[in-house]
Design the sequence.
């Protein structure tokens, strides 16, 4: 009986510490020190939630940079079902899907450069908001055409929104597609405003 009572007290004590006190403490500290990040890095426009810096989105319009493909279940970029397709590289279904993506890119982008691999393959989470610099520059000429901007303006925008790893051996520079497209909208609006005021 004594052993049972001791076990029960220890269970309750550990439940309170690890199941209640610790999560509340960590959540409280995160909200105090990093409030924006702790709440999902959510981005609002005119008091309307338009996305998160941490989760990729599907951009279908030709005048936007495209994200990596997503294979999350039920719908693309579903943050409640993060995960990859689980198809092996030799699986005909995966090869067929990649072939379709290559054909789509060849129709959309009018250049002969090799399509960067991250534009035709999904990330492990299916939610990656970043693309490589190669993938961004691959799309730059196309975006410049649809936005009626110069290629140099688009490439400068990419440079301005490039994130470098903390240390060079920890990865390669990337661009957050959602934030890049936000900056693209801002640049287009500024250019149109200049034209209308002239």
Sequence:
């Amino acid at each position: 009986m004594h052993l049972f009572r001791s076990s029960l007290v220890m269970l309750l004590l550990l439940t309170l510490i690890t199941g209640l006190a610790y999560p509340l403490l960590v959540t409280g500290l995160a909200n105090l020190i990093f409030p924006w990040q702790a709440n999902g890095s959510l981005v609002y426009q005119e008091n309307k939630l338009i996305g998160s810096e941490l989760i990729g989105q599907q951009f279908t319009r030709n005048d936007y940079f495209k994200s990596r493909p997503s294979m999350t279940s039920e719908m693309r970029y579903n943050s409640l079902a993060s995960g990859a397709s689980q198809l092996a590289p030799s699986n005909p279904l995966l090869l067929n899907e990649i072939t379709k993506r290559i054909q789509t890119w060849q129709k959309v982008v009018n250049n002969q450069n090799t399509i960067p691999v991250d534009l035709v393959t999904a990330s492990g989470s299916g939610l990656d908001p970043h693309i490589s610099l190669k993938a961004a520059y691959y799309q730059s000429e196309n975006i410049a055409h649809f936005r009626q901007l110069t290629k140099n303006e688009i490439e400068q925008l990419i440079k301005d929104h490039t994130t470098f790893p903390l240390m060079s051996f920890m990865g390669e520079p990337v661009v957050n597609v959602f934030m890049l497209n936000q900056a693209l909208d801002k640049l287009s609006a500024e250019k149109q405003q200049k034209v209308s005021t002239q």
Observations:
- The CA atoms of residues 192 and 198 lie 10 Å apart.
- The chain has six helices and five strands.
- The chain has a mean pLDDT of 89.
